[in-house]
């Protein structure tokens, strides 16, 4: 295998994501899964690292925080192995952010792993960690979104929502959430909307 092959894959997926910037998560997710499978066999580990960051950032944009966290953690492991420190602070921050999206998570093993590497200045490490831990989650999100059962059906549910929603703009989030709750329940999943999870918050 040529070392430039994963570089070309990264270029192709970046172009694909740029060209499909307005697409829903269910339309992008299959391409990301296939892309990750293609990355795995290559020996050019720096390009695989770049690839995981592309995947993580795409999942972050889609709002799929548990998948983003997983990809960021794979990138982190490579960064620590190769001693790549140029994006280490950002990766560390994004793991903390993603893993705390659903539940309070101290991420102790991630903190220790980065600390032991010595690649991130100890003051910067501590500041990022304390800042992130102090503000955890402003809004609560149903942790069921982390489950395999939810992830297995959410593409199908999102596609159905897109076909059946009628409202857009201000106030349309409530129609979206109602449809999502209904279609997930059809799959046996009891999902709670941000409105239910945050009863004192007004959503437009």
Name some characteristics of this structure.
single chain; 204 residues; mainly alpha; Serine Threonine Protein Phosphatase 5, Tetratricopeptide repeat; 2 domains; globular
Chain-wise SSE layout:
Layout: H1 4-19, H2 25-39, H3 45-62, H4 65-82, H5 88-99, H6 108-117, H7 122-135, H8 148-164, H9 172-186, H10 194-197
Helix pairs in contact: 1-2, 1-3, 2-3, 2-8, 3-4, 4-5, 5-7, 8-9
What do these coordinates show?
The chain is mainly alpha-helical and 204 residues long. It is 68% helix and 0% strand. It has 2 domains: 132 residues, Serine Threonine Protein Phosphatase 5, Tetratricopeptide repeat; 55 residues, no CATH class. Helix 2 crosses helix 8, helix 4 packs antiparallel against helix 5 and helix 8 crosses helix 9. It is globular, with a radius of gyration of 19 Å. The model has no long low-confidence stretch (mean pLDDT 91).
Major beta-sheet overview:
none
Uncertain runs with pLDDT below 50, 5 residues or more?
A: none
Helix content: 55-70%
CATH superfamily grouping of the largest domain: Tetratricopeptide repeat domain
CATH class assignment of the largest domain: Mainly Alpha
Strand content: under 5%
- Named at the architecture level, the CATH assignment of the largest domain is Alpha Horseshoe
The helix count comes to 10
Number of E-type strands: 0
Quick rundown:
This protein has 204 residues and is mainly alpha-helical. Helix content is 68%, strand content 0%.
């Amino acid at each position: 295998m040529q070392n430039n092959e994963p570089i070309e894959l990264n270029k192709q997926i970046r172009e694909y994501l740029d060209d499909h910037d307005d697409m829903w998560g269910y339309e992008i997710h299959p391409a990301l899964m296939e892309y990750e499978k293609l990355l795995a066999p290559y020996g050019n580990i720096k390009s695989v690292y770049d690839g995981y960051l592309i995947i993580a950032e795409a999942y972050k944009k889609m709002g799929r925080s548990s998948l983003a966290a997983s990809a960021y953690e794979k990138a982190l492991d490579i960064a620590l192995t190769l001693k790549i420190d140029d994006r280490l602070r950002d990766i560390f921050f994004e793991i903390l952010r993603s893993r705390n999206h659903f539940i309070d998570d101290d991420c102790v093993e991630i903190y220790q792993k980065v600390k032991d590497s010595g690649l991130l200045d100890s003051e910067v490490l501590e500041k990022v960690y304390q800042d992130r831990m102090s503000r955890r989650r402003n809004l609560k999100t149903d942790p069921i979104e982390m489950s395999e059962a939810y992830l297995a059906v959410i593409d199908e549910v999102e596609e159905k929502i897109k076909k059946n929603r009628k409202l857009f703009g201000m106030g349309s989030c409530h129609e979206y959430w109602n449809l999502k709750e209904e279609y997930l329940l059809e799959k046996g999943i009891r999902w709670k909307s941000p409105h239910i999870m945050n009863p004192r918050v007004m959503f437009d």
